[in-house]
Amino acid sequence: MINDMTKGNPLSLIFWFSVPLLIGNIFQQLYNIADIVIVGRTLGINALAAVGAISPIFFFIMFIIVGLTNGFAVITGQRFGAKDFDGVRKSVAVSAVLSTVFTVIFSVLLAVLMNKIFLLMNVPDEIYKDAYWYIQIVTGGLFIVNFYNLLASIIRALGDSKTPLYFLIFASVLNIFLALLFILTFKMGVPGSAYAVVLSEAVSVVLCLLYVKKRFPILHLKKKDWTFDFKNNRKKEISFAIEHLKVGIPMALQFSILGFGVLIIQSVCNSFGPDVIAAFTAALRIEQIATMPMISFGVALAAYTAQNYGANNFSRIRMGVNKCSVICICLSILMAFIMHYQGAELVKIFLGSSESKIISIAHEYLFLSSLFYFFLGQIFIFRNALQGMGQVVIPLSASIAELLVRSFAAVYLAVRFGYMGIFYAGPIAWVTAATIVAAGYYSGIGHIVRKARILVREQRRAA
Q1: What confidence tier does 437 reach under pLDDT thresholds 50, 70, 90?
Q2: 198: left (phi over 0), alpha (psi -120 to 50) or beta
Q3: What residues make up the domain containing 187?
Q4: What is the pLDDT of residue 382?
Q5: Could you tell me if residue 76 is inside a domain?
Q6: Which of 137, 138, 245, 369 lies at a 20 to 30 A Cα distance from 452?
Q7: What stretch of H or E contains 71?
Q8: How many domains does the chain fold into?
Q9: Is 4 a member of any domain?
Q10: Measuring CA to CA, how many Å separate 251 from each of 121, 344, 396?
């Protein structure tokens, strides 16, 4: 159902929009968590390490696709907020073409460079084969991943966070079933888990398309939406595509920078052997679930901000950001408390209770990083607010700073303190990025409001 977020109580709108997002994000994580639990429990520590060692590559890919499609959807949301429904459909068509082109280029590059990437990441020889086949299979399904994220981001831009959720839940359950089937029944090993991820994601794409066709008339694209009139309206067509790229590419770069930072940390982690890799893998999955509520509020805020920015409702943007910031502070305290006292028990879900050394390493990471969830939550809020307004320079700058700090900290501290040094890299980077995006938001929203007031005064004088 389409939801106009330019009217009504801001906190209520954002909260109810974020709830399906939260559930959807949790089920999205089940794709990866199911892999870790099933692989770790049925195939052993080396198989778990194989999936974990290259999971940052998968996340790096996902970050780029999510950044690109979310960036394109910002324009779609702004057109919807301005009640330009022809512009909404044209935006969807342009987004589909551009994201397809980028996916083709990216898929080819990954296929050519995969062996070199593995070498740079220090993937141990004993897990190399399983890791290689897992990532190649997942990379082969990039088109499916791209189209699901594009559809989901466009639907969310129209204020509907529920529709993608229903199909994602079904696909997540299907992923677990297929992973068990391929690994236990067909004896396909680690590659079986990768096939399960791709096939279940394909199902969610098909279901999304069928539902959009039946229930979303505003997204029923016509022939003219796909027609790019470069002969008579060349400047207009190119300008509209560039408008999408101006938001999409910086957001993709921003997300890819974050993913690259994770790659660097994982490559350092890989040098400490399968036990540390397995512990780090389990801990990161738990952390991803713990931070899902804050991420969901951030994504909801981006859709809310985009619509209100398109409608020039800047006071509503401020109100939404302030309330979400307070909620994320409360969530960060709650999640830190849970990680402190229940972190070890959560790790046992992935590894069982017999791997005491690995459980201890994973809990050390959770204990330390959870102290800094406050800063991570503020990153989600201010970064998404800026992106919803089409402001990409500050989020991109913050991501670059986060990459540099995270990479330096991971490499330098690992030499000084061993694997424990890696655990400090993320928190240090979060503090840096949170400071930049917070300063950028308060400066940016103030500038936008001042410009709007000047424009209103000029219009009144002209009248």
Answers
A1: very high
A2: alpha
A3: 10-462
A4: 92
A5: yes
A6: 245
A7: helix 45-81
A8: 1
A9: no
A10: 25, 35, 7
Give start and end residues of each alpha helix (H) in 291-392: 292-310, 314-351, 356-369, 373-388
Q: What's the whole-model pTM score?
A: 0.68
Contact 152, 70 (CB under 8 A): no
Q: From residue 257, give the alpha-carbon distance in Å to each of 113, 252, 264, 421, 458.
A: 18, 8, 11, 21, 42
Helices (H) and strands (E) in the chain, counts: 16, 0
Residue 292: predicted pLDDT:
82
User: Do the domain assignments include residue 2?
Assistant: no
Cα–Cα distance, 167 to 201 (Å, whole number): 9
Q: Tell me the C-alpha distance between 225 and 212, whole Å.
A: 16
With contact defined as beta carbons under 8 Å apart, do 219 and 154 qualify? yes
Distance CA 216, CA 340 (A): 45
Asked whether residue 81 is assigned to any structural domain, the reply reads yes
Ordered DSSP codes for 182-244: IIIIS---HHHHHHHHHHHHHHHHHHHHHHHHHH-GGG---HHHH---TTTSHHHHHHHHHHH
Dihedral sign for Cα 406, 411, 416, 417, please: positive
